[in-house]
From TrEMBL:
The keyword Lipid biosynthesis does not apply. This is Peptidase S49 domain-containing protein. The keyword Transferase does not apply. The chain crosses the membrane at residues 33-53. GO terms for molecular function: serine-type peptidase activity.
Length: 321
């Protein structure tokens, strides 16, 4: 073999070794990525299982189900569509609470300023329906606020209990907004709207308000207000002192005054009221079962994940003797 051929062969061999080394590194990199992905997935599954086992985002698990209890459904925050207190979100909890064969009754724990009349009415009607079907006692316990739409929901209960400082009532309807026609005039902006039907544009905030628009809005609010009043009268019955000034005019009262006029029944708290009216010493708070991703992103999920990662990477400490 010539000396040149030997050099060429050596160069080819080196090139092959380099190529093989690069392939091996790529394989190692892929394996590393797969291992990391598997590790992350394993942690997520573990956290989800752990959260499910210990009931994060579900009903409380520290209740002795061999003894009587009542189910608690919370009505908190603004009542409206696409919220945690929408009919869509609350209905499954109510149905589950009433369907529980062991639960002796249902407690509505309310801390809400109200919300949309439709969502509140739907929740109210469902409570009345489930109460009629199951014949289970229902009490509503107000916390900081139990006003407007929240009060509409509360009157579906057999008894209304509040704290002396709870703000409640507000049997009224409001529609608020802004008008921008004057500002548009100053800015030289012209509003151009084409409609089919003379009433189609009555409530447009960018056009001057008309007498017909005001009249129609007042008509709508009056109709909704009448529906609200009917619900309150049906729920409270003869307990209401109908000659109370401002009773159906959006007035609010604190707990003590609300008791005097029959807006609520008495002062108290959840645990004592559950024992008095349902005959139980313990309650179970119903909670929406969160999807896996939401559970993992919650505070509890992140804590568990952190603990899992810490335990996975922990190494023995060196000791000096």
């Amino acid at each position: 073999m010539h000396e040149g051929d030997s050099g060429t062969t050596e160069t080819l061999t080196q090139a092959a070794l380099v190529a093989e080394l690069l392939k091996e590194r790529k394989r190692d990199r892929r394996a590393g990525i797969l291992k990391a992905a598997f590790f992350v997935v394993a942690i997520l599954v573990y956290v989800w299982c752990y959260a499910t086992l210990f009931n994060f985002g579900g009903e409380q698990s520290d209740v002795d189900i061999t003894k009587p209890y009542a189910n608690v459904v919370k009505i908190t925050g603004t009542i409206g569509p696409n919220s945690e207190t929408s009919f869509e979100a609350v209905a499954p909890l109510l149905k589950k609470a009433f369907a529980d064969p062991i639960a002796k009754g249902v407690v509505l724990s309310i801390n809400s300023p109200g919300g949309t009349p439709v969502q509140a009415s739907l929740i109210h009607d469902l409570i009345v329906e489930l109460k009629t079907q199951t014949h289970k006692p229902v009490i509503a316990v107000g916390e900081d606020m139990m006003t407007s739409g929240a009060y509409m929901i509360a009157v579906a209960a057999d008894k209304l209990i509040v704290n002396r400082s709870t703000v409640t009532g507000s049997v009224g309807v409001i529609s608020a907004g802004f008008g921008f026609s004057g500002l548009m005039d100053k800015l030289g902006i012209e509003r151009r709207v084409a409609t089919a039907g003379q009433s189609k544009n009555l409530l447009d905030p960018f056009s001057p308000q008309t007498d017909n628009g005001r009249a129609k809005q007042r008509e709508l609010l009056t109709a909704i207000h009448g529906h609200f009043i009917d619900i309150v009268k049906a729920g409270r019955g003869e307990r209401l002192k109908l000659d109370t000034p401002g009773l159906f005019e959006g007035t609010v009262w604190t707990g003590e005054d609300a008791v005097k006029i029959g807006v609520v029944d008495e002062l108290g708290d959840l645990q004592h009221s559950a024992k008095k009216y349902i005959g139980v010493d313990q309650t179970v708070t119903m909670a929406r079962r969160k999807p896996m991703l939401e559970t993992l992103l919650s505070g509890a999920g992140l804590k568990v994940m952190s603990a899992v990662i810490d335990s996975s990477v922990q190494t023995p400490m060196a000791t000096v003797q």
